[in-house]
Amino acid sequence: MASHEGLPTIHELVQRWLSLDKNDVTRQEISQLYEQQEWSTLEDRLRNPIQFGTAGLRASMAAGFSRMNNLTVTQASQGLCTYVAENIPEARKRGVVIGYDHRHHSRTFAECTATAFLTKGFQVYLHDRLVHTPLVPFAVRHLHAACGVMITASHNPKADNGYKVYWENACQIIAPHDKGISQAIAANQEPWQEPFTGEELAQHPQCTKITERIVLAYFEAVRSLVSHPNDNRKTNLRFVYTPMHGVGQPFARQALETFGLPMFVPVPAQAEPDPDFPTVKFPNPEEKGALDLAIRTAEEQGLSLVLANDPDADRFALAEKQSNGRWVVFTGDQIGVMLGHYVTTNQRGSRPLAVLNSAVSSRMLAAMAREEGVHYEETLTGFKWLGNQALALSNQGYDAVFAYEEALGYMMTHIVPDKDGITAMVLMAELCCQLHAKGQTVAQHMDSLYDRYGYFFSANSYVICNNAKKIQKAFANIRYGDQGQTSTSEDRYTFTRKDGPTLRYPRQLGEAKVTFIRDLTEGFECGNLVERSSTDVTQDNVPSLPVSSSSEMITFGLDNQCVLTLRTSGTEPKIKYYLEGSGKERSAVQQQVKAIAACIPVDLLNLNL
Prior knowledge:
Blueprint: H1 10-20, H2 24-35, H3 39-46, E1 57-60, H4 70-87, H5 91-94, E2 96-100, H6 106-119, E3 124-126, H7 135-143, E4 147-151, E5 160-166, H8 177-186, H9 198-203, E6 207-209, H10 211-222, H11 229-234, E7 240-242, H12 249-259, E8 265-266, H13 292-301, E9 305-309, E10 316-321, E11 327-329, H14 332-346, E12 353-358, H15 364-372, E13 375-379, H16 383-395, E14 399-405, E15 409-411, H17 421-437, H18 442-453, E16 455-458, E17 461-464, H19 468-480, E18 492-496, E19 503-506, E20 508-509, E21 512-519, E22 524-526, E23 534-536, E24 553-558, E25 563-568, E26 574-583, H20 586-605
Parallel strand pairs: 2-3, 2-4, 3-6, 7-8, 7-9, 12-13, 12-14, 18-23
Antiparallel strand pairs: 1-5, 4-5, 9-10, 10-11, 14-15, 16-26, 17-26, 18-19, 20-21, 21-22, 21-24, 24-25, 25-26
C-alpha cells in the first residue's frame, strides 16, 4: 500500500465509501476489492474524487469517488441544486430540465439527479425517453428553467458516462460557476434521499414529463431554418444516414420531414441505440474508420453521400463519393465554412449578421465573413464560449446566426446556443439538394469557396504522453527556453515582465519566422515580431481572449501564413495541435503546412517519446 502521510488511509476511504453508498452493486464492488486487498485499484477508485469542471463530469462507470456511479452523480446533483438555489432567482419555481441518452445507467443517473432537486422543492422537467443532447438546452430556454442536466458521454468509449450542465441562459457553464458548484458538491456529500424509482417520479407532483411537447416546439423552431421548401419537395437526391448506435435516428427522420426532404437510407447495424457500440472501436465520427460501415452501405445502394451523427447527436459528419470512386470525408472546418456560408447567404432580417468559431478552428470563416460583410469573432475552445459570446453579440444588436468548432460541432443560435448535429445534418442535406440540382458535388462547392475566399489547409493532430511532468516541461521549454541551456537572441524572442519569469519564445519553426505569439496560460500576446529582439511586457500585451493558468494553450503566427496552436486536452493524456496554412497556390500551402507539422513533435515539443 502506498503511504499518504496526513491523508486518510485506504481503510478509512473504503469505510467512507461504504457509509455513503446506498447501491448494493457498487458497495459490493468496493467490498470485494477490499477483501482481495486490491490496494492500487482502491487507491485509483477512492483517493482522488472525480472533479467537476465547466464540462461537468465525465469518467468510466464503476464504484468509487473517481468514477461515474449513483453516489457521485447524487453528490454532483446535490451540489448543483444548492448552488443554483443560491444564485438564480426563483430557481425552485423555474425548475431544472433533465435528459439522458442510451448509455448504460443513463436513466438511473437521471433519476438520481431528479431526486436531489425534488428533495429541495425544485420543479423537475424530465425527458421521459431518450433524447439527443440539444433538447436539454432547448428546453431550458423554452421553459425558462434555472438550469439543465444531460446524462451523456457523447462520443466517448462505451465504459464512460457523463453529466453535462447548462445554465439558465441554455449555455454550458463557464467560470466561476464551475468552482462554485464544485465547492457546493464538497459540502453536500451525504445523500439526502434514496433515489426515486421511475414509477415514483411519474407520480411525484413536482416532476413533469416534457419530451413530447419539447420535441414539437423544437421542430417548429427547426422549420424556421428551411430556405428552399419548394425545391426540397422536388428533389430526388438520396443519401445514407447513421446515428452511430446512438439516439439520433428518430430526430434525423423528423428533421428531414420538417424540411420536406427525401428520407435517408439507414445503416441497419447502427440504426438503433446500443450502448455497447458493437460495430465501431470508438463511436466518434472523427475517428478514422468510423464511417466505414456507412460508406459500405452507400456503395451497396449506389449512393454517393453519407451523413452521420455521433451517439448523442450533437455532432455531424459528412462524406461524399467522387467521380473517380474515391470517398472524401470532409473535415470539421470544411463543413463549418460550407454551413456558415449557406446560413449567412440564406438568412433574412434587419440586424447585421455575425458568425463565430473557436481559436483552434479555421481562419477561413473569418476570411469569408470579411469578404461578405459579416461580423466575425473568435473565442476560446468549446461551445461554452461560443454559445455565451453568441448571446452577448445578440445583446449588442447582431444576429449571431452561426458558430462552429473544428471537432464537428455546429450551432444555429436561433435554435439552441450549443452544438446540434440534427440541425447541421438537415441544413447540409438541403444544401446538398441545391447543389445536386445544379449538377454540382459537395467537393466542387468547397472548391468554389476556396476560389472565392482563398485556400486553407489544415494538419491537426496530437501527441500522446502519459507523463504529466513531461507535458508541463514541454510547454515550459516553449515558453521559457530550455532550462538547461542559455537561450540567445538569435533563436528566442525575449520578453521581460515586472512580475513573473522572463518569457523566451522561439523565433522560428522550421524555415518559417514567428510573427505572432498568444499565450493564454501566461496571459501574453504580441504581434509584428520579426524586427524585434526583446521588449518589456506592457498592458498592450494582454490577450483579448480569456486567460486560464490551469490549462496550456499557445498560438504562433508564422510569416508563411501558417498558424499553429498547441494545447493540452482536458480529458485525455494528449497534447493537441492545430496547424493551418493559407494562400492562393494549393500545392505551396500544403508543402508549407507539412514542413511545419514535421517540426512539432520532435523540435518544438521535444518529449523524447
